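tool=predict chain=A
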Amino acid sequence: MTTVPQHPVVSASPNNPVFDLPIYVARDEGLFERAGIEVRFRARYSERNASDKEPFARLKESLFEQGKADVYNLCEWAGIDRSEHSARGAQVLALRPAVGAQAILSFDPALQEPRDLAGVPVGINDKTGSHYTTLQSLEGVLAREDIVVEHVGVPERRYEALKQGASRAVAVMEPFISLGLKEGAHLVDVTFYRGAEVIAPSLTPEQRNGYLGAINEAADRIMADFGKYKHYVTEQTKGRLAPHEMSDHFVRYTHYVVYDPKRFNQVYEWMRSWGLASGGADHASVVARL
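tool=predict ok
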């Protein structure tokens, strides 16, 4: 017998658990229900392909573009890119609660500071936070022509490439920063960044506000007792990192941030300067109204 939902269903595409944590908490602690919506993931994060280079072939983008999901989050730059090229009319609703670190890790004693990365391929996932943050961070100390990135795939694949010696340096987020430090890697560079909540244009104002209000409250709960929720993030290490071993220092959760035109224009111009945006989009077309 099929159960009829009591509230409108908002379907979500999965991202890395460290970024989706407010969604897990809001779902499991009844915050979405209290906001008058039901949020369901349309797939598990573990179901994605580990190495897809084409963004729209990846699980979260593919589900969204097929109309099987209404919302997903990813880095700010990718939020612009996917919204600019979406066949479904995706837009950035707001900047997400997760403020995460992307760290360049290495086991190589010759790589100790960002300048040592001149000409060294850094393992990334193309057109995701690992890609954009590596370019943004390293261009402060290296000439652009000396910055080299190499598509390796999802974070666990990047970390395994580092462990196996296939990559001398990789960019990863939690839980792989803490796991790397536990297993003997060292930090070469760290930068913090926000991401974007991307939505389908069909979401009503009530659904949009309900969703954002619930993840705001979830962020407050996470920051009040982070240890209570770390198991959601460390689960993907399959026992190599216990929840209490995950650092408190490489991710924070705040209320969502309105994506204002000044910030958008600065970010979009930077993307265009790297050839990562067409130059034809603007704030009005990419950013949704709250």
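Residues 205-224 form the longest helix (20 residues). The domain at 100-192 is CATH 3.40.190.10 (D-Maltodextrin-Binding Protein; domain 2).
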